[in-house]
Design brief:
- Helices cover about 40% and strands about 15% of the residues.
- The chain is of the alpha/beta class and about 180 residues long.
- It has 2 domains: about 120 residues, P-loop containing nucleotide triphosphate hydrolases (Rossmann fold); about 50 residues, no CATH class.
- The strands form 2 sheets. Strands 2-3-1-4 form a 4-stranded mixed sheet.
- It starts with a helix and ends in a 16-residue tail after the last helix.
Length: about 180
């Protein structure tokens, strides 16, 4: 979802950076830049400069900052460092939109770290895989207010199962943006 949003914004003409928050298996870094050895975590640590790290997709115009080779468990420490706000300011100077791909239901300490770097959050929930109680608990623990929590996207919906719920009909999607 983060990569799709970044592509949409870039194709619409906005200077957009997609940042991978973690290098876990199946991460966007492994999909978009499997050979990347340096990235976001190295930028936060101050051991690399942004222009050395960003990958660019000439087809979509998206710029991508991989997670890097540092263990993702250090991200909380790095985001809390004085250098993190300088990194945030630099990213916002260079890009109109900075989209972070944060792992699903990150630990509370990691979500609190993310709130220092990110202005707003959109929760992506996988149909049939996300436990509702865990999801609500994670949102409550993250202490996001209405200004920063923009909403949720239900992903991977099984349309055949969806139509079995009362009041739900599968039809043509409608545009909700004005």
């Amino acid at each position: 979802m983060a990569a799709n949003l970044a592509q949409f914004l870039a194709k619409a003409g906005s200077r957009t950076l997609l940042v991978d928050w973690t290098s876990s298996p199946g991460s966007v870094s492994q999909q978009l830049a499997p050979g990347a050895t340096l990235g976001f975590l190295d930028l936060l640590a101050g051991t690399a400069k942004i222009d050395e790290l960003v990958w660019s997709d000439p087809e979509t115009g998206v710029h991508f900052l991989p997670a890097g080779s540092r263990p993702s468990r250090v991200i909380t420490t790095l985001v809390s460092s004085p250098n993190a706000q300088d990194v945030r300011s630099e990213l916002l100077r260079q890009y109109e939109y900075v989209i972070f791909d944060i792992p699903a239901l990150s630990p509370v300490v990691e979500m609190h770290a993310a709130t220092q770097m990110v202005d707003a959050f959109v929760l992506v929930v996988a149909w049939g895989r996300a436990d509702p109680d865990s999801t609500v608990g994670a949102l409550t623990d993250a202490e996001l207010d209405d200004r920063r929590f923009l909403g949720a996207v239900l992903n991977e919906v099984d349309l055949k199962q969806h139509q079995l719920y009362p009041g739900n009909r599968v039809g043509r999607p409608s545009a909700a943006l004005t």
